[in-house]
Amino acid sequence: GRGKKLTVLKFKRTNQYKIQRGHRQNFTAVQVHDIKL
């Protein structure tokens, strides 16, 4: 699956430098059906 979307912001006060981009981290979803002891 994929995680929630994060907005990544790079910002410098000089000369209106601003970069905004989205990021979603991939993750592995594991489903356990049964555990035998």
Task: Tell me about this structure.
- The radius of gyration is 19 Å and the shape is rod-shaped.
- It has a two-stranded antiparallel ribbon.
- The protein has one domain (1-31).
- The model has no long low-confidence stretch (mean pLDDT 86).
- The chain has 37 residues and is mostly beta strands.
- Helices cover 0% and strands 38% of the residues.
- It has strands at 6-12, 17-23.
Q: Unreliable runs, pLDDT <50, ≥5 residues? A: none
Largest beta sheet: strand ordering: 1-2
Total domain modules: 1
Query: How many DSSP helices?
Result: 0
Helix percent band: under 10%
List the secondary-structure elements in sequence, H or E.
EE
Going by helix content, strand content and strand pairing, the class is: mainly beta
Mean pLDDT: 86
Give the N-to-C terminal Cα separation.
29 Å
> How much of the residues is beta strand, in percent?
35-45%
Describe the biggest sheet? Answer: 2 strands, antiparallel
Rg from alpha-carbon coordinates: 19 Å
Anisotropy-based shape: rod-shaped
The number of distinct β-strands equals 2
